[in-house]
Amino acid sequence: MKGFLAKNFLSSNNADNKNGSDENDERSEIDKNDERSEVDKNDNEESNENNDIDGKIENDNINNDNDEAENNEYKKKDNVFSSIDKMTFYECVLKQLADDNLLDTYNTLKREISLEENVNSENNFLFNLYQKRLYNNPSNVVETEETNINKLTEYNSLNKKKSHIYNNNLILNYENNSNTIRQIYSYEINSRIELIHKNKCICCANNASRNILCSASSDSTIKMIKINDLKKKKIFLIDNKHTKKINSLKFHPTKNILFSASDDCKIQIIDINKALKKKKKLYYNQYKHMKDKNKRNDEEKNIIIQDKNPFISMYVHPCGDFLYACNKNENIIKLYDLQTLNCFMTTNKSTYHSSTINHISGTSDGHIYGSVSVDGNIKIWDGLNSNLIHTQYNAHNGYSIQSIEFNKSNFYILTSGLDGQTKIMDMRNFKTLYTFGNGLSCISNKSIFMNNESFIANIFQANDIFDSKFYIYNSYFGNIEHNIQNVHNDKINDIINARDGLDVHTASYDGFCKTIKINQMYSHDN
C-alpha cells in the first residue's frame, strides 16, 4: 500500500514537472511581454509624475495667490469687525461655547476679537434661537419705512402688560380714560442751593437711588453732595483729569460710578465710592505723612476714554456694560464696551445723521435708543444691533433738536427743538400727540418727563432774553400749569428729576446747582 502511494505520488510529481516545464516556456514568453509592458508603464508613470509635480507646483502657486488674496481680504475685514452690527452676535457665540464647555475654542475666539461673553443671556440662548428659527421660511418681503415702524410693536419694551402700565397713575398713558377730567392745581415753589461753582454750572446728575448729586462746570471741576443727609452736608470736590468744559454727566444704572464727558475729548469713569473714601481718609490724615502715595494714586486712577473730538452727550445702557456717546462735529453714535473699552460703530453710513448729534437717550430696558441732531431729524435705533429702525424727518420744522427722552412705559418720546416747540410723539406710529410752546425760535430748549409723567418740565431761552423760562406743562391737556420764575439769574442749562414728587435739580450759568422744591396742591376752586 505504501509502495502504491509512493508510486502514485512520484508519478503525479513527474506529471506535474512535465506540465510545469511546458507552462514555464509559456510563462517565459508572457514574462517577457510583461517586462516590456512594465518598462513602458514605468516610463509612463515617470512622465505622469513629472506632470503631476509640474501641476502641483502650478496649483501651489495658484493656492498661494488665493491665500494671499484671502489674507488681504481678512486684513480688510479686521476693520469691518469693529462694527457694532456683529458684536452682540459674537458675545452670544462666546456664551454658547462656554455653555458647551469648549474652552479652547472659547479662549481662542475671545483673544482674537477682544470681547467678553454675554453674561446676561440665558444658557444655550444661541442654540435655542437656532432651533426656534430652523424651520422658518426665509422672508422675501422688502423692508420699508412702514414695516420698520410696525416692527416697534414687536419689541418687549413696547409690549409690556397693560396691567403694569395702566394701574400706575404716575406713568403717562393716553389710552387710560381716568385723566379725561382736568384737575386744577396751585403751586408753591422753593429753591435750595446745593452746589456752587466759580464758573458756569453746565450739567448735573444723580445716582440710581437719587441720594448723591453731582454737578460740573465750565472750569472742568466736578462737585458732589449727599442729598437729604441728616448730618451736616459736606461738599466733595471730585479729583478728575479734565482740562476743559464738561458737557455731560451720567451715573451708572446700579452703581455709584460717574461718567463725565468734556471738551478735552475725554470721557472719565469715576468710582464715587473710592472718591468718598479718599476724601475721608485725607480728612483724618491731613497732618500725617501718607506712605505709598504713588501706589495709592495708581489704585484710585480714573479710567479715561480718549477721542479726537469733544464729547457732547452720553447714554449708559441699563445693563451697565455699554456706553453710547456722540462728539462735536460728528454725525455718528459710538458704542463703548465698558469691560474692554473697545469702540464700535455701525458701518452703514446711509443711516447716519447729516450733522452733529446733540443728544442721545434710550428706553428703560435698553431695547431702543434715540438720537436728535442739528439736521432736525429724530432717529430711532435697535438697542441690540444698532440697526436704524426709523427716521422722523424735520420733526421740528427743520430746526435743530436739542433733547430727546423716553417715558417709563417706552411708548412715548419727548423732544424739544430750536423752533421753540416741545412735542410728545407716540413711538408706535410716530404721530405727534401734543405740541407745547409758543413756536418762536430760541437759542436753548430742553424738556423732561417729571416723576409724575402727567407733567413735563421745560427750560427755554428766547433769543432776546438773558435768563431762561421754566415751565410746567400738563401732558394730557397741553396747558401751562405753572411758570416758575426767579430761581436762577442766568441761563438754565440742565434739568433732572430729584427724588421726591415733582422736585427737580437744575444747573445754571450763574454757577449754582439747585434743588427746586415744587409743592403741588389741589385748588379750592376745583
CATH homologous superfamily classification of one domain: YVTN repeat-like/Quinoprotein amine dehydrogenase
Q: Averaging pLDDT over every residue, what do you get?
A: 80
Distance between the termini: 144 Å
User: How many strands, what sense, and barrel or not for the largest sheet?
Assistant: 4 strands, antiparallel
Q: What percent of residues are in strands?
A: 25-35%
- Taking all Cα atoms into account, the compactness measure Rg is 37 Å
Number of strands: 28
- SS-derived structural category: alpha+beta
- Low-confidence parts: 1-28, 69-80, 137-141, 161-166, 282-291
CATH architectural designation of one domain: 7 Propeller
CATH class of one domain: Mainly Beta
Q: How many distinct helices?
A: 8
Keywords: mRNA processing, Nucleus, WD repeat
Protein name: Cleavage stimulation factor 50 kDa subunit
GO molecular function: RNA binding
InterPro entries: CstF1-like, WD40/YVTN_repeat-like_dom_sf, WD40_repeat_dom_sf, WD40_rpt
